[in-house]
Amino acid sequence: MKILIADGISPYGQEILKKNGIDFHIQHYEHDELLKEIPEYDGILVRSATKVTKDIIDAGKHLKLIARGGTGIDNIDHEYARSNGIPVLNTPGANSASVAELVFAHMFALARFIPQANITMRKGEWNKKTYKGYELAGKTLGIVGFGRIGQIVARMAIAFGMKVLVYGQMDIQTDLEVNIVAKDELLRESDFITLHVPKKAQNIITKAEFELMKPTAFIINTSRGGVVNEDDLLEALQSGKIAGAGIDAFLNEPTPNPALVNHPSVSVTPHIGASTKEAQDRVGIQIAEKIVAVLKK
Ligand code: MLT
User: Fold this and answer.
1) Which residues approach ligand 1 with their CB closer than 6 A?
2) Beta-ladder partners of 88
3) Which residue's alpha carbon is at the smallest distance from atom 8 of ligand 1?
4) Whether 40 is catalytic
5) Which CATH number fits domain 2-91+276-295: 1.20.120.790, 3.40.50.1240, 3.40.50.300, 3.40.50.720?
6) Which residue's C-alpha comes closest to atom 4 of ligand 1?
7) Which of 21, 216, 278, 289 has CA 20 to 30 A from 94's CA?
């Protein structure tokens, strides 16, 4: 049995595969190369860089599984894989705490002008008077989507003294001290808005939603590119409809819209929500155990 590990795996994950006699090769291939290489493998493990499309699945004549080190499986044509009897494995929850912490990294960065201060200090400027920031304590955080990550974000926000509003399409049951509200109320009342929805929730925030937000509001997207319409976000930033944005997930990764990346009111990161040692260790262990379970069945 041989697995292609296309976007990396932690040493703990490698250890589990080795211990169970599963051979693997760690190598990232671009799409056309992957098409040529995939027939050699019984399985493929990806993060978000590699797209496992229909043609890759068709070329993978020996594929017994497709594994995703992470929660979202939107970079895998999972319906097609499953319709061909190929299981698609993932690691829900393994990186949730890391994503939630990145939300706060962006919120603090925006509230205290950290990206702008970094850029200008490196140019030799000392803009102490310019960067009059805000505390998170006492502010209202609106959480759109209340799955694992949304709930961790809520807990942290409460600990920071924030008031938390939650909107979700599913019925929300929680013991946390949050107010479950309609989407419009959340958009109108929140000082910070963070999204924790799957990729299929494309354009959940568009021009109409930006119109409802406070001009002092900040929006954070660590979920998927396109969940916030990027053209409308740019327009909202340029016209001052909102105060700023923290963006970890872009529509065109790895070549996001430069106008968005370079806007002075944004804090940007290259889809690193899950990129902590702890999260990747958990992801590696969980996904390796799942791969072993399928291949040893
Ligand atoms: C996820 O869906 O869990 C993340 O996108 C994982 C990642 O960035 O590797």
Assistant:
1) 47-48, 70-72, 95, 271, 273-274
2) 66
3) 274
4) no
5) 3.40.50.720
6) 70
7) 21
User: Tokens 């698609």 correspond to what residue?
Assistant: 88
SS3 of residue 234 by DSSP? helix
CA–CA distances in Å: residue 80 to residues 46, 94, 249: 17, 25, 25
Which residue has 């690691």 as its token pair? 91
Identify which of 9, 45, 95 to mutate to test ligand 1's pocket (most ligand atoms within 8 A of the CB): 95
The confidence score (pLDDT) of residue 194 equals 98
CA of 184 to the centre of ligand 1 (A): 28
Out of 196, 224, 230, 282, the active site residue is 224
Which atom number of ligand 1 is nearest to the Cα of residue 90?
3
246-to-38, 108, 109, 114, 220 alpha-carbon distances in Å:
37, 10, 8, 12, 4
Nearest-CA residue for ligand 1 atom 9 is 47
Retrieve residue 51's tokens: 């797209």
What the block records as the tokens of 166 is: 């939650």
Dihedral pair phi/psi, residue 17, rounded to 5°: -65, -45
Find the 136 Cα to ligand 1 centroid distance in Å.
26
Mean pLDDT for all residues in the chain: 97
Q: What residue ranges do the domains of the chain occupy? A: 2-91+276-295, 96-268
pLDDT-based confidence at 54, cuts 50/70/90? very high
pLDDT at 278 (0 to 100) = 98
Q: Across the beta sheet with 65-68, what order do the strands follow?
A: 23-26, 2-5, 43-46, 65-68, 88-89
State in Å: Cα 72 to ligand 1 middle.
6
Over residues 73-103, the pLDDT tens digits come to 999 999 999 999 999 999 999 999 999 999 9
Is the full-model pTM beyond 0.85? yes
